[in-house]
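Loading example: each entry is read as two labelled lines plus one structure line.
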Amino acid sequence: MADIEPILQTIDLTRSFDMVKAADAINVTMGHGELVGIVGANGSGKTTFLNLITGYIKPERGRILIMGRDSAGLPPRLIAKRGIARSFQIPQLYTGLSVQENVLLSLAAASGKGLGFWRPLYQGPWVEESLEILDRFGLKGYAERPVGELPEGGRKLLDIALSFALKPRLLLMDEPTSGVSIEDKFQVMDTLVRVLQESDITTIFVEHDMEVVQRYGRRVLVFDNGRVIADGDPASVLADPEVRKAVLGRV
Amino acid sequence: MGSNRLPLAPLFGAILLVAAPLVVPSWILFILTLALAKFMVVLAVALFLRAGLVSFGHGLFYAVGAYTVGFGVKWAGLRDALLLVPLGILCAAVVAAFVGVVMARYRGVFFAMLNLAFSMILYAALLKLYWVTGGTDGIGVRPPTFLGVMPPRAIARMSYYYFTLMLTGVVIYAVYRFLASPLGFFLKALGENEIRIEYSGESVRRVIYLTYILSGALGGLAGVLVAFTVGHIVPEYAFWIQSGEFVFVALLGGYGSVPGPLVGTIAFEFIRTYASKYAPEAWQMTLGIIMLLTILFRPGGLWTIYEALASRLSRGWRGAESG
């Protein structure tokens, strides 16, 4: 399906906390099928950007267009309904439920039958799909286990799997490899990128690790003090001394 | 839930309840009927405890159910159980549908206290509107008929018991279905992570609101049945101490399962009866001590004693098989 409208467009998106401008007139356009990495030092406004798009915080100024529709000011629930899902730096899971039940609830919500109160969750049309998703994310072996028994890397993957299960047009991942060991980092990213590309999901991922961004991003946005200071292909953007200074604090 | 591990015990419990009228004296049957009826409102409170929400105001629905019977009898000449039961459920559900609009916006202490506030408004109204409600004198309720048939005196108590037991079965089945449904899972999940629910495109408020209506309906049903059993309705049904008792019993039996509140209510009613008989000055202290011991040693409630036993036994059997 070819889209003429960009999936996401922000115009002059602005928000400050006290005196700090966490988002300062951000203009970003995302087309269908893109895989974009966002880098920046701590406090550069990366997560604020995700929070603004998903409606967790409201912009002071500016517009957010999701497939051409004005979406600024909507709560996360309605943003999700417009096809944008997100994962979190600290995994947001239902800790008292099993791994599979976590995915089942996402699938039930996405199907619009999340408030069904008679047909058992385990007899819904989504059971097979939940196992298939867990399989894709390499978590099938944990399906019946409580979430608490997952290792940290597994919790990260499950958190992303829950967003993936919503079948979004655009997925925002907040630091998908934070908390994942250096050895596992690339393996986790390999898995994620493969699954998302297979499913044709446009993706933005926030990273503070330049190496990860360079390797996986087809396009890179660099944030600094709430502004986008660079936007382009990874090789040239990350070679820019000004960018290196902003992200790493050194050239 | 323990029932998967050893379904024999719940079955055994059900058989005991069905056979009880043939074995036990009439006054015990009365306590059992009362316990089954109250179980439904305790279960209603337990639903919210699963989500980490405490209601200190379910006396509201309990009283709405009871006074539906009272007004029905007093003003409309209704006295058929098969009419008053659905009517009481409906009235309580309608009240819950209104109050729930407000309640769904609050959590924690505010949820607990707002529930209490609503129930106390009803309490005050029941107390002051003497010419309608009979004030503190309450309303006397004659025994109901069943489809116009009045059970003969000799088996009257047994009839009410079986009627209540049958409805208990229906309620247990319905609540099991509810808890196994997506909505039931979301209810549990909202105590753990509201953010994830909202980011999934589902509304936490709607989850609470729909549960609130179910919970109110259960409370109303309990009120109707208690009115039949006790035969006398007073404003205290809506009083906050009554609501507190429901929370107390839910904790005593264990709110994590459906049998928990049932075990809790039966235990509570018998403890109260015996303690007030043998230690009339100290029955509340007895209850307090039992609660203290439960929380210290069995924080999941009395039902978890059975669950722990069942899992140990089934492990023992499996061990015997493999050895």
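The interface with chain A takes residues 177-178, 180-186, 188-189, 191-193, 195-203, 206-207, 210, 214 of chain B (CB under 8 Å).
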